[in-house]
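Risk register update: the risk of archive-format incompatibility is retired. Evidence:
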Amino acid sequence: MNLNKNFSLLLLGQSLANIGDVLYMVSIISTIFVLTGSATTSSFVPFTITSSMFISSLLTPLLVGKVNLKWLMAGLQIGKTILLFILGFMLVGVTASNYYLIFLIIGLIALLDGCANPIRQTLIPYYVNPSQLIKANGLAETVTQIIQAVMWFIGSLFLIIMSSQQLVWLAGGLFIVASILLSLLENVADNRTEAKGKFEQITEGWVTLSNTPVLRKIAWLDLFETMAGTVWIAAILLVFVNDALNIGGQWWGFINGAYFLGLILGSVYCINYSSIIEKKLGTFIFIGSILSSLVTLLFSINSIPLVALLLSLCAGIFGQIKGIPQQTVIQTSVAKEHLSTVYTSLGAIGTGIFGVGSLVMGLLADLLGIRIVFMISGILLAVVSLIVYKSKHLFVRNIIEFE
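Archived output:
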């Protein structure tokens, strides 16, 4: 794939920012656990981040249209960098009595991050030829999943030779480079000229979702799929390994790693066969969703560790085979000027449902048993595949040239 300069800068800048995100989160989780000795308190780090990103998804439309998308993306990263250095200095004097201040800073960082994610997804169609969208989305997903799969492990190793504060400084250095790279992006033209009130700006994405048939379907898919996907979070997977498979904790890492490896392989598949997928977007979205459902249901009744490893790998592969074509459908369903608000609305659905779904699935696991939870997930994915099948004609590239 021939990468143009802007897409390369966007991908590299965002990748360095993502690496920094993982490193600083490893540092903060470790710091809070050392200060409080409470795993529950440490778990509030991802909860705080998810909650802040949900709020920012609702408020991002107020910024879009007032600030050029390129400078909005770069400015958000610069803001994150400033907050991270404040956090680094704060760690010098943090104690068990004032550690709550850490949550304030990471909440603010996540607030900016929640704005940046939909902007990044919106910029890809501006910087990539329409015929290259499948490959571009696949490459972006591949890099993101590799970072997620590798950096949590590497970050933990860094804590052996570095203090938490030093790890934050390292993340800050990566943030600085990311800010510079994103500032080098070319400006993009936003053709919206009409003035809108704050309420109209906030609701614009929701109105677009409601008025666009395929996006309305995708919003429902995201709702069911995000709820189903919460069973693959580390905490619930650990319970499955211990209670359903009755094997050692090391298998938890193997199965979790297999899922991330599956995501990477699914992305690579989409890159290599983009020309085929491009012609049958709806078919691949359906195949990915129905196979994800079957794999999850098989996982729920399986008791063999090696089979669980293979099924976890397949769950990641089929999830990406569905997800990447779906991104292309979204990016070609509305004019580019409306993409940012569409992504913020979909992001609000994703983060909101994920937060609630994690709590619900955890509660159901305690009440009904861990296997039942994975069965519920498989059934939810079956609902997703049914929606896709009935509306498969909608899941196509929109070839209309928007003005």
